[in-house]
Automatic annotation (TrEMBL):
<dbReference type="InterPro" id="IPR011989">
    <property type="entry name" value="ARM-like"/>
</dbReference>
<dbReference type="GO" id="GO:0008093">
    <property type="term" value="F:cytoskeletal anchor activity"/>
</dbReference>
<dbReference type="InterPro" id="IPR039921">
    <property type="entry name" value="Inscuteable"/>
</dbReference>
<dbReference type="Pfam" id="PF19427">
    <property type="entry name" value="Insc_C"/>
</dbReference>
<dbReference type="GO" id="GO:0008356">
    <property type="term" value="P:asymmetric cell division"/>
</dbReference>
<dbReference type="InterPro" id="IPR031938">
    <property type="entry name" value="INSC_LBD"/>
</dbReference>
<dbReference type="GO" id="GO:0009786">
    <property type="term" value="P:regulation of asymmetric cell division"/>
</dbReference>
<feature type="domain" description="Protein inscuteable homologue LGN-binding">
    <location>
        <begin position="13"/>
        <end position="57"/>
    </location>
</feature>
<dbReference type="GO" id="GO:0000132">
    <property type="term" value="P:establishment of mitotic spindle orientation"/>
</dbReference>
<dbReference type="InterPro" id="IPR000225">
    <property type="entry name" value="Armadillo"/>
</dbReference>
<dbReference type="GO" id="GO:0045179">
    <property type="term" value="C:apical cortex"/>
</dbReference>
<dbReference type="InterPro" id="IPR045789">
    <property type="entry name" value="Insc_C"/>
</dbReference>
<dbReference type="InterPro" id="IPR016024">
    <property type="entry name" value="ARM-type_fold"/>
</dbReference>
<dbReference type="Pfam" id="PF16748">
    <property type="entry name" value="INSC_LBD"/>
</dbReference>
<feature type="domain" description="Protein inscuteable homologue C-terminal">
    <location>
        <begin position="70"/>
        <end position="522"/>
    </location>
</feature>
<dbReference type="GO" id="GO:0045176">
    <property type="term" value="P:apical protein localization"/>
</dbReference>
<protein>
    <submittedName>
        <fullName>Protein inscuteable</fullName>
    </submittedName>
</protein>
């Protein structure tokens, strides 16, 4: 959402540190066992009990998470080896190389226990990677066995080249493995009539999408969007719609996912779901999340928006209704985020919103702290207000809904948690509320209401006090513009020093003055 993105981008899920250590312990001890056994795997074929335990203990989703965690560890180790090699830390380079060698073999052995129908190409890369890792270990061992720095230096370029090759083979193998897994999951989704099997496959697919844009591209290229929209068109899978739509929203963060959505008339399907009152609120909310994703102003690819415009009126109408009837803050956030994004790319959306009395609905929602309960929700509301404020009719709607009071309150938006994302959302709320005030103050009635609510002193405070605006330049610029607009309507509300420093100079000069202002000057 706005404000609702292989190995290098891999990330681990945030969990309790002790729990993480317990999980990682298995991987580390497996690695040490492999070292002692000289990287010779224990054959599960001769131990049926072990095979049974392994297959029953982990689901497909668990196996994928284990694989991804192993991939992350190997990627991290390869990066660290390159850093130690640069510093000529030969002993560390060798010990880490041995560890990588063992992790690679463990990963391949683990994967072979739960995969099906591995391709010949995959087996070839497994062999190439294992052979190159062995060669790598032999090179580094030779380096620690000699004290001659000249020999070490002569071998360094060879070791660097081998490390690069190992990383390339590893990346290519992981690409094949993840593509293979995505194909298996999509085959299950396409062929199964079982709700349970389909739900499990979609859950595993969603977990893959959370590992970054690269995996989303793989899934999209393998037909993931097509398969998931097929589920959304079958009534027998209605109970899976929320989960399916959530997965679609993740895949559509990449251009390949968007192209697939366009090919299968995905926007029409989303419009049908949003306007069908027999669907649950959860389904409507997740459909809104997909709309928010595909209309994000941060996306550089917009080919899909032509078909979106054809369905825009009914989509906007359904989203306004969802905002009005939202039973929780999360549902309101998703619906309002979709509306906020839509207002960025077509002014017709703002006109539709005016006709639907959306201003009144959004302003009323903001007075309900159970629904609009975070800076993120207020960010979406003020974005819609800012974009609608370019319309002349908007001013009367703002006055009637007590919107100037809300905008004034938003100028005081502060983070309660200190979380970086929340702080950024608060800055956006302050900036956009100032922008909205500046735009609406062309109407004398709005400007008069803003002056009576003491907006001018608050704007001056935001300009002069860096901490009030969290040192945000964008908030400063917006406040200077709003202040100048209000000063035209009410010049008596300013002290001479404020006029001389914040109003009279060029905007850029006032900006530079405020950005260099120390807190003690306030």
């Amino acid at each position: 959402l706005p404000s609702l993105s292989l190995p290098s981008s891999m990330h681990l899920i945030q969990v309790d540190s002790v729990q993480r250590w317990m999980e990682d312990l298995k991987l580390m001890t497996d690695c040490e066992c492999m070292c002692i056994l000289q990287s010779k795997p224990i054959s599960v074929e001769k131990d049926e009990q072990n095979e049974l335990i392994l297959s029953s203990q982990y689901s497909t989703c668990d196996n994928l998470q284990l694989l991804l965690k192993r991939v992350w560890i190997i990627s991290t180790e390869l990066t660290r080896i390159a850093q130690k090699l640069e510093k000529n830390r030969w002993q560390r380079v060798h010990s880490m190389t041995v560890r990588v060698n063992c992790h690679v073999r463990s990963m391949i052995n683990e994967y072979s226990t739960f995969t099906r129908n591995s391709s010949e190409e995959m087996h070839q890369f497994e062999k190439l990677l294992i052979d190159k890792c062995s060669e790598f270990t032999a090179f580094t061992e030779r380096c620690i066995q000699t004290e001659d720095e000249e020999i070490r230096k002569s071998m360094k370029s060879c070791i660097n080249e081998t490390l690069t090759t190992v990383a390339q083979y590893f990346s290519q193998l992981i690409e094949l493995v993840l593509t293979h897994e995505a194909q298996n999951l999509l085959r299950q989704i396409e062929l199964s009539d079982s709700v349970y099997v389909t739900e499990s496959a979609i859950s595993s697919l969603f977990s893959l999408t959370q590992e970054g844009a690269h995996l989303c591209r793989i899934i999209a290229k393998e037909g993931g969007v097509v398969a998931l929209f097929r589920i959304c068109r079958q009534d027998c899978f209605r109970c899976l719609y929320p989960q399916t739509l959530r997965t679609l929203a993740s895949i559509c963060c990449v251009e390949e996912g968007m192209h697939q959505l366009e090919k299968v008339d995905g926007i029409l399907c989303l419009a049908d779901i949003l306007t069908d009152n027999t669907h649950s609120e959860a389904t409507h909310a997740e459909a809104a999340a997909v709309i928010a994703q595909i209309t994000s102003p941060h996306l550089t690819f917009t080919q899909h928006l032509s078909s979106f415009l054809e369905n825009m009126e009914e989509i906007v109408t359904a989203l306004v209704k969802l905002c009005q009837e939202a039973s929780s803050g999360e549902v309101f956030l998703l619906a309002s985020a979709a509306l906020a994004n839509i207002t960025f790319f077509d002014t017709m959306a703002c006109e539709i919103l005016l006709q639907l009395n959306a201003m009144k609905i959004l302003l009323a929602a903001c007075s309900d702290k159970r629904i609009v309960d975070t800076p993120f929700s207020r960010d979406q509301v003020v974005t819609i207000l800012a974009n609608m404020s370019v319309l002349d009719q908007c001013a009367s709607e703002i006055i009637q809904g007590n919107g100037v009071q809300l905008l004034m309150e938003m100028l005081f938006e502060r983070s309660s948690s200190g979380n970086s994302a929340e702080i950024a959302a608060c800055e956006r709320v302050q900036q956009k509320s100032a922008v909205t005030l500046a735009r609406l103050s062309r109407d004398p009635e709005v400007a008069d209401a803003a002056v009576k609510l003491s907006c001018i002193p608050r704007l001056i405070k935001l300009c002069r006090s860096p901490t009030e605006r969290n040192n945000s330049d964008s908030v400063l610029v917006a406040c200077l513009v709003a202040l100048r607009r209000l000063a035209v309507m009410s010049p008596d509300g300013l002290e001479d020093s404020d006029f001389q420093q914040l109003i009279k100079p060029r905007l850029v000069d006032s900006f530079l003055l405020c950005t260099n202002m120390e807190e003690s000057f306030v």
